[in-house]
Amino acid sequence: xxxxxxxxxxxxxxxxxxxxxxxxxxxxxxxxxxxxxxxxxxxxxxxxxxxxxxxxxxxxxxxxxxxxxxxxxxxxxxxxxxxxxxxxxxxxxxxxxxxxxxxxxxxxxxxxxxxxxxxxxxxxxxxxxxxxxxxxxxxxxxxxxxxxxxxxxxxxxxxxxxxxxxxxxxxxxxxxxxxxxxxxxxxxxxxxxxxxxxxxxxxxxxxxxxxxxxxxxxxxxxxxxxxxxxxxxxxxxxxxxxxxxxxxxxxxxxxxxxxxxxxxxxxxxxxxxxxxxxxxxxxx
Length: 284
Known about the structure:
- The chain is 53% helix and 15% strand.
- It is α/β, with parallel strands linked by helices.
- The protein has a single domain (9-283), classed as Rossmann fold.
- It has a seven-stranded parallel β-sheet, sandwiched between helices. The protein has a two-stranded parallel ribbon with strand order 5-8.
- The radius of gyration is 19 Å and the shape is globular.
- The protein starts with 8 loop residues before the first strand and ends with a helix.
């Protein structure tokens, strides 16, 4: 059932840049009321100014979503400002591009804390408000259902060499989402998954904790943050349970089930291509 977002209070984490920022901008076009969240206050202020200039009701909430106290305060502040929460979009994330043996326990914990635990605990602290939103939809006959949208990754469906920590955290949020989707159905709260493939960025090295991976990543064929945002909002409007974004994501989500050997061959080829390029560069 399609859901109108006009007037709905949507919390977007990771809104200072990339997918989160573009998703907030796209939600503004749907006339949603936005609570944008990130650690970087200056970037949030810039986004809020832009959205308000376009007539969007929007407020910045600088917060570190890995901090339990900050999460609790964030929800209280959003409810105080907007009167409730109708949708949570977990798009805050981080990644490390390196082989497991070149990484550290600290990096593993950081990636898992941001990509998995923070998203899970944001769902926990917003659940009472999401429940109230869906109960109101029942009572007023609007058919409105609150929703959680977890922005996962192709890495949540298939193992990618040199991204083991990212894969572990995204597999975790994927499995968690599928489990609570069945639990939350009784509350009329939808749980949606979006799986982007590789996303274009101005400087990959700047956005990864490490950037020393040994696999060939095709950033030329990556999807844009704007395209991912369009699919995130599209999934929310249509309540599509799982949305792959990009060719590689479709292969990961559906091709792996039908042709698992072929997917493994593709991943091994990416490793071989990197080794061949590295060897060629060393001999030149």
